[in-house]
């Protein structure tokens, strides 16, 4: 019994040490240099009959150190770029040196590596116009040559394992596109697929992985890597984005570099270490050097960068600053390097849009590398974190409406005001009259918010294209009326002022200047947070003007009876009228972490007691724009049916 305990303890300790080791993220110095003190593999040139091409073709074959003809080996097929041939890897990348060194260090499984000519045509030399249509087509034709001629030849000539789990494919540039196309298109043949700086020949993701569930089940490893300054990076990123949205495990590896062998050699060094042994899918997001610049960065800004696990790397140059932090709800201290550049990597950040600020020696500033948004009562930086379920606000190839910015003179406030108006696709070419949703922002924001932070136009474009929402006009109002803002100054005076602006300023302007219906059946009112209170006040008191009310992340304050009690009294006395007039009173929250959650729950209990009919929806995410985007996505589908 003691012996068993000791054995288990040693086993546990060894495994703990293995998993505690730091993950290697790039090849160390000398990984591609010949070492005199190690065993070496062998390179042979082979010829095989290609029935696909109708000629004899060439390839290079690497066999590992200690190669034994009686041992069966797994095989990696390693493909070159558009300007190369079977010797491109040999001449530019010295793969045999990289693999010998890895083998000597016990980091890779013994394997055979086949380097073919991926230009499947009779004259397959990399000469003349390499971009000629017939030569480009030959790279696609190579799929048949590979599957029907080369692989059978290798499996007949060499002692190799012939099941899919012992067959891998990878390549650089054009060969990277081939590898993704052929590997993912033949999951019955390949379990390990790698694309290094994949070229435009890479199929669009929907064709590349038409069945994500099958890919999840059959792939052992899908590797996608590229240099951060490679002009072809967008092709790798679009594939990664699709795989991310569809939950297909893969490694997305970005490193400093361009379209050259420095990047491709490192890709081979990293990729080959995973092959033909158990892999830990949970560790995939840790394998990258650089993140992807956020979509909210200004043009060409490299930072902030988002890592595959949604941690964020921030960077700012402030050589004379004494202390620099990032305020992302949580404050992160940054560290300065010798050139005066400050860096920090955050914890994993939740999906969707977030405001953030730089704190430089205690002063809150917008990040000059990021787009700014009016929020928190000032211009603040914003960052968009990838969201697997965010396809509903993605830019798609569908008909698009317009966001129109209009200034109008309001008789209600005797002042010039501004609103943003969404008009649906086809508005200008139609004689149709449209229903209207009046949409309100939260405290510290303004009329820009639902367009800039909320992506309302994209959400409606996609819904209308899918016939999930009625075409409608959306008037995004400036709800800042009635004096100073903020909770301390918010009360009935401000609510009455907004009600007046809505009825006597905004609605008359929309109905006089846009082709819209003017009856209650075709009007809706909704808002988030402060805008939710404005909706509760103006919408409930004027239920004869609206058939639909949406209240997002809001509710009458339980600790302010001076404000809330008159509202409840009005509702109690008019419950029948409210229920009759409103087709939908839709109330939503961002889960228990939403700061309005408790107030809302108390309010709904009072609604229940009064017999006020409503629908309640909850979507986890707190008091944030990811929640409100989802709210408008859900609410707009209920309208004007």
From TrEMBL:
Gene3D superfamilies named in the record: alpha/beta hydrolase (3.40.50.1820), Immunoglobulins (2.60.40.10)
SUPFAM superfamilies hit by this protein: alpha/beta-Hydrolases (SSF53474), E set domains (SSF81296)
Record-linked CDD domains: E_set_Esterase_N
MF GO annotations: acyltransferase activity, transferring groups other than amino-acyl groups
PANTHER family: DIACYLGLYCEROL ACYLTRANSFERASE_MYCOLYLTRANSFERASE AG85A, ENTEROCHELIN ESTERASE-RELATED
Protein name per the record: Enterochelin esterase
Organism encoding this protein: Pseudarcicella hirudinis
């Amino acid at each position: 019994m003691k012996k068993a305990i000791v054995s288990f303890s040693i086993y546990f300790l060894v495994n703990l040490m293995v998993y505690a080791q730091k993950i290697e993220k790039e090849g160390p110095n000398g990984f591609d240099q010949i070492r005199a003190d190690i065993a070496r593999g062998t390179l042979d040139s082979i010829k095989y009959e290609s029935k696909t091409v109708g000629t004899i073709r060439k390839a290079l074959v690497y066999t590992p150190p200690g190669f034994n003809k009686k041992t069966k080996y797994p095989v990696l097929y390693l493909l070159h770029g558009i300007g190369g041939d079977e010797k491109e890897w040999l001449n530019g990348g010295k793969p045999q040196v990289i693999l010998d060194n890895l083998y000597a260090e016990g980091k890779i499984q013994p394997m055979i590596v086949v380097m073919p000519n991926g230009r499947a045509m009779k004259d397959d030399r990399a000469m003349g116009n390499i971009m000629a249509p017939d030569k480009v087509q030959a790279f696609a034709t190579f799929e048949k040559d590979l599957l029907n001629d080369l692989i059978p030849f290798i499996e007949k000539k060499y002692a190799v394992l012939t099941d899919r789990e012992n067959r891998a494919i990878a390549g650089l540039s054009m060969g990277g596109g081939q590898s993704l196309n052929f590997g993912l298109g033949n999951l019955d043949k390949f379990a390990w697929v790698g694309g290094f700086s994949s070229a435009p020949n890479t199929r669009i993701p929907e064709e590349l992985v038409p069945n994500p569930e099958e890919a999840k089940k059959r792939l052992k490893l899908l590797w996608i890597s590229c240099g951060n300054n490679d002009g072809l990076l967008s092709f790798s990123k679009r594939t990664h984005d699709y795989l991310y949205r569809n939950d297909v495990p893969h490694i997305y590896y970005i490193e400093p570099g361009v379209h050259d062998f420095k990047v491709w050699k490192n890709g081979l060094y990293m990729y080959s270490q995973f092959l033909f042994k158990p892999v830990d899918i949970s560790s995939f997001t840790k394998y990258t050097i650089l993140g992807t610049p956020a979509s909210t960065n200004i043009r060409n800004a490299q930072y902030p960068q988002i890592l595959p696990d949604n941690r964020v790397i921030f960077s700012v140059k402030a050589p004379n600053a004494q202390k620099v932090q990032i305020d992302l709800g949580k404050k992160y201290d940054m560290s300065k390097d010798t050139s005066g550049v400050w860096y920090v990597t955050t914890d994993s950040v939740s999906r969707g849009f977030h405001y953030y600020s730089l704190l430089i020696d205690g002063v809150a500033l917008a990040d000059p590398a990021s787009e700014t948004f009016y929020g928190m009562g000032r211009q603040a930086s914003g960052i968009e974190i990838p969201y697997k379920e965010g396809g509903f606000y993605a830019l798609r190839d569908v008909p698009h409406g317009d966001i129109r910015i209009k200034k109008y003179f309001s008789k209600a406030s005797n002042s010039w005001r501004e609103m943003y108006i969404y008009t649906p696709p086809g508005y200008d070419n139609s004689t149709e009259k449209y229903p209207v949703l009046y949409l309100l922002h939260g405290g510290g924001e303004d009329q820009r918010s639902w367009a800039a932070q909320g992506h309302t136009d994209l959400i409606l474009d996609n819904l209308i294209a899918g016939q999930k929402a009625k075409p409608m006009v959306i008037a995004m109002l400036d709800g800042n009326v009635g004096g100073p803002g903020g909770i301390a100054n918010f009360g009935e005076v401000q609510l009455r002022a907004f009600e007046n602006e809505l009825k006597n300023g905004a609605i008359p302007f929309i109905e006089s200047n846009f082709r819209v219906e003017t009856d209650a059946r075709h009007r809706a009112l909704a808002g988030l947070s402060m805008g939710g209170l404005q909706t509760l006040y103006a919408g409930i008191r004027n239920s004869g003007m609206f058939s639909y009310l949406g209240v997002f992340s809001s509710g009458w304050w339980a600790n302010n009876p001076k404000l809330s009690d008159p509202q409840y009294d009005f509702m109690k006395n008019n419950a029948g009228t409210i229920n009759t007039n409103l087709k939908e009173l839709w109330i939503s929250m961002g889960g228990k972490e939403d700061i309005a959650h408790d107030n809302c729950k108390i309010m709904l209990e009072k609604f229940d007691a009064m017999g006020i009919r409503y629908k309640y929806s909850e979507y986890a995410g707190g008091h944030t724009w990811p929640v409100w985007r989802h709210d408008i996505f859900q609410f707009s589908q209920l309208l004007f049916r």
